[in-house]
Amino acid sequence: MFQSLSDRLSGVLDKLTRRGALTESDVVEAMREVRRALLEADVALDVVKDFTEKVKAKAVGAEVLRSVTPGQMVVKIVNDELVAMLGSDAQPIDLHAAPPVGILMVGLQGSGKTTTTAKIAYRLTNRDRKKVLMASLDTRRPAAQEQLRVLGEQTSVATLPIVAGQTPLQIARRAEDAAKLGGFDVIIYDTAGRVTVDEELMDEVRDVKAAIHPHETLLVADSLTGQDAVNTAKAFDGRIGVTGIVLTRADGDGRGGAALSMRAVTGKPIKLIGVGEKWDALEDFHPGRIASRILGMGDVVSLVEKAAQTIDVEKATKIAEKMKKGSFDLEDLSEQLKQMQKLGGMGGVLGMLPGVAKIKGQINEAGLDKSLVHQRAIISSMTPKERRNPKILDAKRKRRIAAGSGTKPEDINKLIKMHRQMADMMKTMGRNGGMLNKFLGRT
Ligand code: GDP
Q1: What pLDDT sits at residue 354?
Q2: What pLDDT shows up at residue 366?
Q3: Counting atoms of ligand 1 from 1, which one is nearest the CA of 109?
Q4: Which regions span the lipid bilayer (predicted)?
Q5: Which residue CA neighbors atom 16 of ligand 1 most closely?
C-alpha cells in the first residue's frame, strides 16, 4: 500500500537523518523533493502547498532536542503534519444510536460499494457481535439485489428478502420494519451507483436519506482513481451530506493521493480502507499508523517523542554550558546516565537509531545496561564534594564508595577514567565551537 510514495519520501528523509547538522537550505531542498513526491502521488496541489509550507515554518523555528539530530527532528515534524493531514485521530463507524442503527452506503458504480457493505456487515457481526441486516436499494441494475443476497449467504449475514417491483424508498421502509421486528442492531443500505455523478442518482439517494435518517452515510470511493475519488466525495458531500469515507482498493494503490488529500479537501474523515477482496480485508483508518507506513520512519519518530518526553531541556542546557566551560562533573555524568536509562537503557537508545538496529546483536546490551545501573549507584554513594571534585577520591574513599554501591574499587577507577575522558573530549570541543555545535546537532 502506498509503496511508491513511501519509497520516495523515506528516501528524502533518510538523507536528512544521516547528517549531523542541517542548514536552512538543506530543509528547503528536502521540502522541494517532498513536494515533488506528493504531486507525483496525485495529492491535491493546495494540500501539497499547505503541507510543505507548514513543515518548513516549523522546521526552521524548531528547538532541536539535544539527544536527537536536526534531521530526526525534521522527520518528526513531517510525520506530525502528515498525521494532521490524514485527520489526526481514527474515526471508526459510530453506532451510538437507538437500534436499528442505519448505515447508508453511497458512491459510484464499481467503487466497491456492495463488497464494502458485505465487509462491514461481516465485521460488525463477527467482531462486534451485532445483529446486522443488509438491504439493497439498487433497483436499476437487475442483478444488484441478487448479488447482495449471495454475499449475505457467503458471509452468513441476513439480507432483506427481495420483492420485485418496489422502489428504493419502499425497500428502505420495509428494511426498517423488518429490522425492528427482528431485533436487529444495524441495517446497512446499499444504494444504486452510476458511472458518473448525475442529478437523478443524487436525487434518489437524497430522498432515501431523508426518509430513513441514517446515523452514518458512508461514501465509498476507489483509491486508485486519485483526485477523481476526492472530487466524487466532494460532490456527494455537497449534495447529500456524508459522515465519512471508505477508501477501497488501497491494497493496489502505490501512490496514495486520494488518501492524503481526502480529509483536507472534503473535511470528512476516512473511516475505513479496503485492502483486498476478502471479507476481512477492511481496516480502520488510523492516521498515525498510515503516516508511519508511508514514511517508514516509525523508529525515528518514537525516538524523538521519547526524547521530548524524558529529556529535561533545562538540565540539558545547563550540562551543555558546563561542557563548554570544561566543568562537567560527576553530578552531570549521573544526570546523563539517568536520561539514558529513561530512554529505555542502551538497548532502547541503540535500537531506535537508524542503522544501528542491524548491528545491535553484536553489542552486549545487557552488560551495558548493568554498568549504567552500577555507574549511577557509584555516583550516588559519593558525597556532593566528591562528585564535584573527583580528584579527592583516595583509596579509603573508594573503598567506602565501593561498599556503599555494591561494587569494587576497580569499578570506581573505571568510572573516574570514563568521566575524565568525557570531560577532556568536551573541553576540546568547547574550544572548537563548531565541533561542539555539531555534537549537539546544531547548525
Ligand atoms: P459496486 O459497483 O460499487 O458495488 O462495486 P463492487 O462491490 O461490485 O466491487 C467491484 C470490484 O472491486 C469487485 O471485484 C470487488 O471484489 C473489488 N473490490 C472492492 N473493494 C476492494 C478492495 O478493497 N480491494 C480490492 N483489491 N478489490 C476490491
Answers
A1: 44
A2: 56
A3: 2
A4: none
A5: 277
Read off the pLDDT of residues 213-224 as tens digits, 9 standing for 90 and up.
999 999 999 999
List the chain domain ranges. Answer: 3-89, 101-285, 312-439
Residues with CB under 6 A from ligand 1: 107, 109-115, 193, 248-249, 251-252, 274-277, 281
ipTM of the prediction = 0.98
For the purposes of burial, counting CB atoms within 10 Å of the CB of 322, is it exposed (0-12), middle (13-18) or buried (19 or more)?
A: middle
**Residue ranges of the chain with per-residue pLDDT less than 50:** 352-360, 432-443
Q: Coil, helix or strand for 68?
A: coil
Q: Which of 115, 188, 279, 280 to mutate to test the pocket of ligand 1 (most atoms within 8 A of CB)?
A: 115
User: At residue 102, what are phi and psi to the nearest 5 degrees?
Assistant: -95, 130
pTM for the model stands at 0.72
Q: Residue type at 346?
A: M
Q: What's the 222 CA to ligand 1 centre distance in angstroms?
A: 9
According to CATH, the topology of domain 101-285 is Rossmann fold (3.40.50)
Residue 271 grid cell: 473511516
Domain covering 312-439 in this structure, CATH number: 1.10.260.30
Q: DSSP character for 135?
A: E
Residue 26's pLDDT is: 84
For residue 100, is the peptide bond before it cis, meaning its omega torsion is within 30 degrees of 0?
yes
Q: Is 317 annotated as a binding residue?
A: no
Cα of 150 from ligand 1 centre, angstroms? 15
